[in-house]
Amino acid sequence: MKNILVVCGAGASSTFLAHRMRTAARARGFEATVKAVSQPALDSRMPGIDVLLVGPHLAAALGTLREAAARYDVPVALLPDTVFGQGGEDDALDLAIGTMPDTDLAQFPAHRTTKEFS
Questions:
Q1: CATH class of the 2-107 domain in this structure
Q2: For the chain, what are the domain ranges?
Q3: Angle at the Cα of 86 from the Cα atoms of 112 and 9, rounded to 5 degrees
Q4: DSSP one-letter string for the chain
Q5: What's the whole-model pTM score?
Q6: 51-54: strand order across its sheet
Q7: How far is CA 25 from the centre of its chain?
Q8: Is 113's pLDDT higher than 50?
Q9: For residue 5, is pLDDT > 90?
Q10: Is residue 117's pLDDT more than 50?
């Protein structure tokens, strides 16, 4: 079971995305919890997380968020602007899976053509 945390400014948009990502993960057979958190509450939610996904509107704070995550050895990825649109949950899940060092994206393909993230 992998633990994915999505952070945004207030937590509202990330909550919707996290719900959609949970559904996408189940459809792929990828066992994961996907939770959302606001930026101010981030530090208390980091223990036990496998990857931190950062909302695109927090790009300016990415350095600070990477530093916070590094204290817990958690990899961080910046979500593209497209994740809040149709199919964005698959793109976000691809990014999460691809960012975790011990997880292979090829084992959990989306039901549609996916983009490669680096």
A1: alpha beta
A2: 2-107
A3: 125
A4: -EEEEEEESSSHHHHHHHHHHHHHHHHHT--EEEEEEEGGGHHHH-TT-SEEEE-GGGGGGHHHHHHHHHTTT--EEEPPGGGGSTTHHHHHHHHHHHHSTT--GGGS--SS------
A5: 0.86
A6: 32-38, 2-8, 51-54, 76-78
A7: 12
A8: no
A9: yes
A10: no
